[in-house]
Design brief:
Strands 1-2-7-5 form a four-stranded antiparallel sheet. Strands 3, 4, 6 and 8 form a four-stranded antiparallel sheet that branches. A two-stranded antiparallel sheet has the order 9-10. Helix 3 runs antiparallel to helix 5 (275-327) and helix 4 (242-271) packs antiparallel against helix 5 (275-327). The protein is an alpha+beta fold. It is built from five helices and twelve strands.
């Protein structure tokens, strides 16, 4: 009895040691302060085995792990090998990693069901159906003379005399209305003496054109840069031209102010009795006069240049307009009126 007990005890130890040796080198690591990474080596795997793990805290004991927060080499169909990896999102599972924990990887052995042998099937003999006897059957139906339809009697000729036969006339056929197809109305005849008139486009020269001649130079003389706007073709262009007038009038105003200052300084210079003390006033008066001269002459030069350019551009526009009129003095327009070729020639001078 004691020997049997010892054999049973050693058998249990052997099975336990084999079960523990299937998983080795279990390592635990925290990733990003929210996930737990478990790595292990699976020695061997059998069909039907299932890998699972347990987490045990020092303070709370066994933790409840939800499967939706676990991924990696866990569950069934795990191939044996090293560096198997399981990741558990502890923070999403509701546990903060601020305490000591321990991980255990376990293998649950499953038994595959043995394939069941198919039951022998006995051959069944199908009985052949008998062919129905095909014998001709005769059915006799008595003939009822009243049920036979009678044909309508044909009109028999009436004998009036020998060799004379008169037949009854057939009823006259009703006349059917004859429908005639609708006739299309004839198109109105076009008289050759009165051709149809086709509207022609209006002449370009008859339209009123914008004036862009040299007369705009007078406006440039009053407001430099403004008259040059209207001599631009095909449409007026503003740009920075209004600033020319502002600059010219600004220079003139600055020059006049400097001229007044020059006169005041020169008047003070004339009242001085000592030539040494009067020299600074003379220099100031001369400096103000020099600024007045430069400002006014610059404004006049810019205004004169704008007037000249506007005048020349206006003359050029008039020449181009005259050339266009000369080219358009004779026009020839072919066309078709009432199916006949026509031509319109116009001469202007």
């Amino acid at each position: 009895m004691r020997l049997l007990f010892l054999c049973f005890f050693f058998l249990i130890l052997t099975l336990t040691s084999r079960a523990q040796e299937r998983v080795r080198n279990v390592r635990l690591r925290v990733v990003d302060s929210s996930q737990v990474e478990i790595r292990y080596d699976l020695i061997n795997a059998r069909p039907g085995d299932s890998i699972y793990f347990q987490i045990r805290s020092r303070l709370r004991g066994a933790l409840r792990i939800l499967p939706e927060f676990v991924r990696g080499d866990i569950g069934t169909r795990i191939v044996a090998g090293s560096e198997r990896r399981i990741v558990w999102n502890a923070l999403a599972n509701g546990y903060s990693l601020n305490e000591e924990i321990r991980a255990t990887v376990l293998v649950k052995t499953g038994l595959l069901p043995a394939p069941s042998a198919p039951l022998p099937t006995e051959p069944t003999i199908a009985s052949r159906p008998e062919k129905p006897s095909q014998k001709p059957t005769s059915v006799t139906t008595p003939l009822n003379p009243a049920s036979i339809p009678r044909l309508p009697k044909r009109s028999e000729p009436t004998v009036i005399g020998r060799d004379t036969v008169t037949a009854r006339p057939a009823p006259p056929a009703e006349p059917r209305p004859v429908t005639q197809p609708p006739t299309r109305p004839d198109p109105p005849a076009v008289s050759p003496t009165e051709p149809a008139t086709i509207p022609q486009p209006a002449d370009v020269s008859s339209q009123r054109k914008r004036y862009a001649g040299p007369a705009w130079a007078l406006l440039s003389a009053v407001a430099p840069g403004v008259g040059n706007i209207f001599v631009q073709t095909p449409n007026p262009k503003v740009g920075l031209r209004p600033f020319i007038a502002v600059g010219c009038y600004g220079l003139l105003a600055y020059g006049l102010i400097e001229r007044l200052k020059s006169r005041d300084e020169f008047a003070v210079y004339e009242r001085q009795k000592n030539s040494v003390l009067a020299e600074p006033y003379y220099q100031k008066a001369n400096s103000h006069y020099h600024r007045y001269y430069l400002a006014t002459r610059t404004a006049i030069a810019v205004a004169a240049a704008d007037v000249i350019l506007t005048f020349l551009r206006g003359l050029r526009n008039n020449q181009l307009r005259s050339e266009a009129r000369r080219l358009q003095s004779v026009t020839f327009r072919p066309g078709i009126q009432a199916g006949q070729p026509t031509a319109v020639m116009r001469y202007s001078f």
